[in-house]
Design brief:
Chain C: It comes from Neurospora hispaniola. Chain C: It holds the Pfam family Proteasome. Chain C: This is Proteasome component C5. Chain C: InterPro entries: Ntn_hydrolases_N (IPR029055), Proteasome_sua/b (IPR001353), Proteasome_suB-type (IPR023333). The structure holds three protein chains of three kinds. Chain A is an alpha+beta fold. Helix content of chain A is about 30%, strand content about 25%. In chain A, helix 6 runs antiparallel to helix 8. The radius of gyration of chain A is 23 Å and the shape is globular. In chain B, helix 2 (about 80-100) crosses helix 3 and helix 4 (about 165-175) crosses helix 6. The longest helix of chain B has 22 residues, at about 80-100. The N and C termini of chain B lie far apart (about 60 Å). In chain C, the strands form three sheets. A five-stranded antiparallel sheet of chain C has the order 10-1-2-11-12. A five-stranded antiparallel sheet of chain C has the order 5-6-7-8-9, covered by helices on one side. A two-stranded antiparallel ribbon of chain C has the order 3-4. Chain C contains six helices and twelve strands. By secondary structure, chain C is of the alpha+beta class. Chain C is about 30% helix and about 25% strand. Chain C has a single domain (about 45-200, about 215-260), classed as Glutamine Phosphoribosylpyrophosphate, subunit 1, domain 1, CATH 3.60.20.10. The termini of chain C are far apart. Classes of the chains: A alpha+beta, B alpha+beta, C alpha+beta. The interface of A and B includes residues 112, 113, 127 and 134 of A.
Chain lengths: ~270, ~260, ~260
Amino acid sequence: MDHRPQAWGRPRDDVYGAYDHSYLQNSGPKQATQAPIVTGTSVIAMKYKDGVVMAADNLASYGSLARFPDVKRLRVFLDSSVVGFSGDVSDMQFLDRHLTDLSIDEAYEDPSCTAAPNGKGHLNAANLHKYLQKLLYKRRNDFDPLWNQLLIAGFDGHSKPYLASVDLRGTSFTSPSLATGFGSALAQPIMRRYAETEEDAAKLTREQAVEVIKECMKVLYYRDARSLDRYSIAVVTKDGVELKEDEQLEKQSWAFAERIKGYGTQTV
Amino acid sequence: MFRNNYDNDSVTFSPQGRIFQVEYAAEAVKQGSVVVGIASKTHAVLVAIKRNAEELSSYQKKLFPIDEHVGIAIAGLTSDARVLSNFMKQQSLGHRLTYGRNMPVRTLVDMIGSKAQINTQHYGKRPYGVGLLVAGVDDHGPHLFEFQPSGMTEEMVAFAIGARSQMARTYLEKNLEAFADCGREELIRHGLKALKESLVQDRELTIDNTSVAIVGVEKQEDGTTKPQPFMVYDGQDVSAWIESVADNQEAAPAAAEGEGMDVDS
Amino acid sequence: MAAMFSQNPLMNGPNYSFNDAPRTAAPEGARQHRFDPYTDNGGSTLAIAGADFTIMAGDTRLTSGYSINSRYHPKLFKIGGTTADQKDATIVLSVVGFAADGEALKERLDAICKMYRYRHGKPMSVKACAQRLSTILYQKRFFPYYVYAILGGLDEEGKGAVYSYDPVGSYEREQCRAGGAAASLIMPFLDNQVNFKNQYEPGSGVGHALQERERKPLTRSEGEVLVKDAFDGAVERHIEVGDGLQMMVITKDGIEEVLLPLKKD
């Protein structure tokens, strides 16, 4: 019998054969995320005259399996910004915890600004986007990427509506409307019809923007096989964030489906 | 003969609960020439007396820009100040790089506070022999902070450190109420007047020995505010300000805000 | 058997010094997704040096694959100003290729220029900045910034200067350079129109007797027209170029920036 502490709690060699210590090996190649596992599909967002609207459905898929049908993918940061996550859900949860730490640090750092009107002095959406871009870019440089594409909505330093994206490689950009994943092909053309330029977006009312976003969510549900009809929608205004996390797609019509022909084995 | 047994290092308390090395470091600050800082609702200024070691040498710089929104005035060991200045520069540059914003002034000051405190609690280390006045602007407006070798930092409305600075502080205390609503020119004049109080008998402010630095937020036409970067003025650039506080001018009514000064605003 | 005594490590296989060598072969049928750290975000840039000016230009489209991510993503950056808004900058960097690397490169060069200014109290010359940029790129020789950079400014004599780079830091001062997706479309046009390549004096003879058209520096307006024409051409023939044309003209009076529309199709 082996009485060394290293052997405590391990299967007995004489019964089970030599214990495989290889998982304890800390030399050899480093393991990093090689592919996303549980994933969230598109996040879409667009600016309007006094803020930004963002939406994402509540599904986390495991490949083609609709694995977790109640996962919230929009996250409020410091009551003034929203981050929308698509891509790997475990990386999303890591980022979520990280952002919680960040917001606590920020509140400790300068407690005076908690009381300040509209969170002045806090990290705004532009600051947050910059930070996340740096974080994701660093992880890509380490060949240990966070497998997400994020949308960040809120306000910049000049109190103008702000909307930006950053992906797993650290590529970042802004636009009056943004969509990740499937949404960039399906929703973005619809949103661009209403907000092609910043000037166009600055003319939209909140109701119009919400309407467009809901319409896009519907189109995504019709065509994206990894999507769900329950979704979250957030509206960021100067007064804060209004987040609704359990919305149901309304007025669906699947009549178009009958007319679709030519897929798979169907020939007529 | 009395010999102090409790001042060999900065980790030993004296029976009276004092740490002599830290107190001696604070003395080093009093060896440096005087610097004055004042903050109003819109600006923070630093003014300083520069010293030359001898007639033939140049004047030692006292005011240093850190980032576009922060600068420092130093009293004490210049070389120690440079270490802190470099550290602050690195930190504010790093903060700007990761967050894309001006580093909040208090955050920056807290960092040098923590850095300096470490030197007072580790054997073999020496406290910084320099005191700083940190002037800057952030989202909450202009700030003035005092930093001491002990690691103590404190926000101030107005303050002076360095040789004979008590006289300057007395001036500042007397005029305390006025500072909040001062414009930049007025604030500089108050600073220079405080500085004059601390001068030795037959010395006076000259363009060679006076430095002025300003940072502030300027109201724009559309009602928004815009930060005005930290700027240091030396030599001819300060002559108009020196003249405006010269003794013979004192009797004349206080000049109106910004009258005909050919400095950029 | 021969392999056992071979000095060639490849034949012996990797000589791991630890007990358990990593699993080499993945299970049968398992597909390994490897992370590709690069993408090409398309777009094109262009720079022309004149006698006393430099024109830098780039389109503002950002793509990945067939998607347009943004219609306004600048590729031109002012470098080395005192403040974050780069009001007093004199150097422009253009980057095209992988946008995240471009952004990182720009921020690094800018931070270096700002540190240079802090340490030396003066801005960096274009020549020094150009050399430094080469070093930065080469330092990442084995994990390169996937970026085609062009640096523009005015040299010590006030003449227009354009420095162009490959992703690993080879660089050269040139009269003009096109970079990015449509470089191969624009560069021949520039050779012909800026350096008058393949242009001869009419009637000057045949064969070796042909006289090349005399080269003379472009005027600023000629340069600007060339840039617009070059991009209009590129937009027509390259799907990754379009949306907006960002143009910066560097003269002794500073940097003028204009944004012109391009086709959005």
